[in-house]
Amino acid sequence: MKRLTMAAVCAVAGCCASFAHASGDVRNGAQALAGRNAVSVREADPQLGELFAVNDWTVQTIVAPADAPLGMTLDVTLDGVAQRVVLWKRSMRASDFRVLVQDENGLSEYPAPEVRTYRGILRGVLNSSVTGAVSSTGELTATIIDGAGEVWHIQPLSEKVAGANPTEHIVYRAFDVAPVDGTCGNTETAEDSDTPPFVERGTGLEITDIAIDSDFEFYQDNGSNVANSVFDIERVMDAVEFIYERDTSITYEITVIVIRATSSDPYSSSDSGTLLNQFANYWNNNSEVTNVRRDVAHLFTGRSINGSVIGIAQLSVICNQNSAYGLSWSTFTSNFNQRTALTAHELGHNWSAGHCSGGSCKIMCSVINGCGGIGLPNFGATSISSITSFRNSRSCLSALAPALSMPFFDDFNTGSVNTSNWVYNDGGAISTAAVGEPSPPNSLNLDSSGSNAYGQDNEIRTNVILLAGTANVRLSYYTEHRGVENGEELIVYYRNNNNTWVEINRITSDGVDQNSFDFWEHVLPANALHNEFRVRFIADGSDSTDDWYVDDVLVNTGPAPPPTLETNVVEVTVDPNAIDADPRLTNARTFDLQVTLRDGDDWTASGADASISGGRFYQTAAFEGDPNVDPVPAKTLWPTVPQLEFDSFYSRKNFGEPSFAGPLTQDPNFLSASWFDLVNGGVATYTVARYTVEYGDTLQIDGESGSVLNFTTLIPFSFTIEVNTLPPTPECKGDLNNDNMIDLSDLAGFLAAFGSTILDSNYELQADFDDNGTVDLSDLAGFLAVFGTTCP
Questions:
Q1: What are the distances in angstroms from CA 659 to CA 105, 413, 629?
Q2: pLDDT of 733-781, one tens digit each?
Q3: Distance (Å, rounded) from C-alpha 343 to C-alpha 327?
Q4: CATH 2.60.40 spans which residues of the chain?
Q5: Three-state DSSP class for 65?
Q6: Nearest-5° angle of CA 263, CA 269, CA 272?
Q7: 183-392 maps to CATH 1.10.3210.10
Q8: Which part of the chain has CATH 3.40.390.10?
Q9: Residue range 403-554, CATH number
Q10: pLDDT digit string (tens) for 568-590?
Q11: Cα distances (Å, whole numbers) of residue 216 to 102, 263, 728
Q12: Assign residue 35 a region: left if phi > 0, alpha if psi is -120 to 50, beta otherwise?
């Protein structure tokens, strides 16, 4: 069956795609759909080893999409083997994430740039994993762990080679990272055990809120650009989080990133201890950041630190806001593997991990890449034990419970908020104070007595709910307000597949206490149907007497709505004028493939295979060649060439010119194409293909159609039609000029038709003696057998 993929249509139409493929072999249009191609791998300049601190490497052309799609596939060669990397967007940003920028006017909020961090796998490679980021110019940074545990890194050449093409990347193994000078400012060291370095920890992650600051030198190292600086911090932190999730079951949410775009920043010392104290003093004493929600804060510095020190951090301080600080001289090297290990190391001190020594020490060695190397990078067993023990003693962390499946339901009839259902809760409480609860005696109470950093409004968020691959999912709940002033609101959000909170309802109080609950229901849109879906309620009020009550929160499938797109086959009567013009249509039957759009849907895209058993399709010579150059027979010709109306073809609205995504197959008994219409659309019924069967037994049509509202999940169709029509019998085979004699003039006509497959209607029925759709040698034998005779 012809599969119409979203990538296929977007490749031709130029429409927006939420999942992109990038290959090392740059191609355009339908050719880009042909499949996987190996990337270009070249001999590398020896100087690159010194620039990127690696001993062995390759340079590869990797074309990544710069528009930050929701997902992408990339081709890379690892150890001479072509691999396909599959990535999907994943954000570390907290729901209240902000970017603050200091300039000559002070610190102010700045629009957050696009999320550009990803997680993924190697397609078809068991136990593989990938973490990565793609810049606004399409440059890829990635860490790949293959199925055998080998670790590879990808970085853009442009980080160290001025003027390098954004597609050019250096690819190297973690094993081939060269030693560099760099020590931690902390001093204690212990021997690490030889226990295996890590095991998978499952889904029970502990969420740690982290605030990030950076200095002016770091801003300069990132081209004096705010978006570049945010991107650099997030790509490092994404790789750091990957290590912590795997080794210690700790995950991070970034609440704020501070970018210092002026030399008048609060950080002036090149001594590691003094710089750490400046960082702590600023965050403990400046109202602009003091109340930022955090369990730990970290400074990314570009300042060259005295001696060989590249980082320093307080020990055993997570959850202690006045002491939970550390810093990394993140740009001390261009080697991304070492940059990641440095920040993971300093945060390890915050988590109570000390220095270690020995071959199994890995990240927490006091010398970067010392003690036998940083591994994947990963923590050694002693460090893991220290970190996880300290983690288990912390009360500020939020437990990330295992993801939930549908149906999700909470009637709040327990003594406290269910932490498996609601993994973030600021002020929400179980209450019996409402009136007329749908599920008495309890409901959830939200007011404005919270303690979060950006106001006193109570807020609660669900755990992740697995909605990928579902359809017709509904969110419903009941609400009531009491003591809430006129104009104050309860706001409901869902998290979309771009990790963004989207408002789905805003309930405004009229100032009058309610004595019953209102019911609300929403059909979730397509961008909610993913495996990180969440729901969020925020009470936007002014004090603790602004009481909103929520009950019976449900996420589940509902009754299926009528489809907005429906495909059918309708038979059309062949016009007698067309039969007169071309006798091949004498016994023909014509069938139109029609698509009906409803409920605000727009435009169509279709792909179909059609076959006729024991027969052939009717096609005129006008449809030979490239369909995008020689389009469907023009409607204006139908009055003078009526048979054109019954040609088998694919069409836009009202039999217009099609636009094809990929090659078109036109055989006498088989037609196949993918086509679309982005111009003519709207709610209506459209004929998108016509199949005229000259003769044959069974017509089979299989394919799928898409539209604006049904594009990420195309709707399949299949039709089986018993045609059961015979080819017309010519009055006299061989009499091509209809003069009742088979002579030399007929031989001239026969030779004109010889070798044709889609034939001139004046000759075909008379010249095709064996009715196989082609005038060939067997037909010549038949012609010669009757040559010189008269018609009966």
A1: 54, 58, 10
A2: 888 777 888 888 888 888 877 876 544 444 566 787 876 767 888 888 8
A3: 8
A4: 565-725
A5: coil
A6: 130
A7: no
A8: 183-392
A9: 2.60.120.260
A10: 999 999 999 999 888 888 899 99
A11: 9, 6, 85
A12: left
